[in-house]
Amino acid sequence: MFDFFIHVASIACLYGVLALSLNLQAGFTGLVNFGLIALFGCGTYGAALASGMGWHPLAGLPAGLAMAALLALFYARLGRKLSSDYWGIATLSIAEILRISITNEQALTGGAQGISGLPLLFADLKPYDGVPRLALYALVLVLAWFICQRIVKSAFGLAMKLMREEPQLARSLGYDLDAIRRTVMLISGAIAAFAGFLYAHYLTFVGPDQLMSPETFLIWSMVIIGGIGNNWGVVAGAIVMQFAMAYVPFVKDALDLPTDFVAAARLVIVGGGLLAFLLWRPKGLFPEKVGGSRGR
Amino acid sequence: MIEATNIRAGYGDGADILTGISLTANRREIVTILGPNGCGKSTLLKTIAGYVRPRAGTITFDGTDVASVPIHEKVRHHKVGYVPQTDNVFGTLSVSENIMLGARLLGRQEKEKRFDALMRQYPALASKKNRKASALSGGERQILSLSRALMAGPEILLLDEPSAGLSPLMMHEVFDAIAVIRDTENLCILMVEQNAFEALGIADRAYVLSLGQVALTASARDLLDDPAMRKLYLGAEIEPAA
Which pTM does this prediction carry? Predict the structure, then answer.
């Protein structure tokens, strides 16, 4: 049971990093990205490619970050022409196109079978390797939280919030919205790809099923339930959602329900949780503190 | 100061909304753009501001070609202040935070100096400087929006229907404030308005638009007495000027 807890906590930390990435985009800048999972996938496939090519495992990180930067710039470029809702649909479409392309490509990505055999971090410490891994992921989560906090408390963070609230008014004050969008996408894309890199080396396997669109909506549910626009909140949302998802099989066993129940219940937790919070507590468990401390 | 020549503009792939408009506006002058709904007033202001890129024609500020310069660069490099018609304050920020946003490119001392001067000029805002902007009335928001634009020390002020949604009393207050700005700040003010007679009361010159063209142009005083303009505002159409 202890190992299971360590496992769930490790995954929760990595999803917490992803939730922080989405929160920078959607929570603070108003960029409704439904294709976040593709940025995460850049990190996982960066790790997989390095492994497949026989490179040092760390070489996968710059590879993943470079792919994420290209994709983030492409997303940002699309945002110049599309309004917020159409941009969201476009990002979802691009993430799906990438997943389907990866599924149908064999030589580099291993197609639907994916790539296995990635090195596990701290594997030589078995049977106690889970704890240092969890410590590393927790440290990454704290670091990502700290970076996100510094950004949103800075002058640039104020610009992000102004863009979210009244984009046309922000432009009339001299803010370059394209530059803000580009910068936010690059930073948050790097954070998501870093989480993907660690995730790949945790599962030691990378496959296109990890990039299904429900994964994006799982991250959205963490952000909405935790409190969009609040970095503490989205981390709490990630932990709550990850543990809720992990303990579904125990409920199934306790109630003697069929195995199909687990997958269905997880979808209900994501969809029902999103709907319930959007309807009755749209600001989430920990609402954003609005208003700044600047001025006089 | 502002010189626009043969401007053609529209949105997306749609037809031209402005079909060859020319206008000028100078320092220490309020030029108002009038006309019925849908004639292209706001599109003209947005084109001059840089929200809409003209499809043809030239726009210069003091002789510098700025036709393809977007709004954020005009604000930063060409001393332009723009006050939108609606959504013109950040409701979650306080009054003082809103005003300070206008001066974000200035040094700290200059910011403080201008802020104090504005608070003296608009005591109604000064008394509410720590309140959220969302708690202000429509007229107060317009004054706040004007103050924020002035904080950056603009040379050109573009106003999109500053009286929109205001009561007659608040409308007079806002127009009075605009006239004072013209008299004290040495600015070139270009203002789109629906309330033609109120706008002409403070303006120096006016352009009356019809179907994307300039139908009439004259001094505000002459236009106030012009039967053609009265006819236009009663719903009748007039021929564009040759």
Answer: 0.88
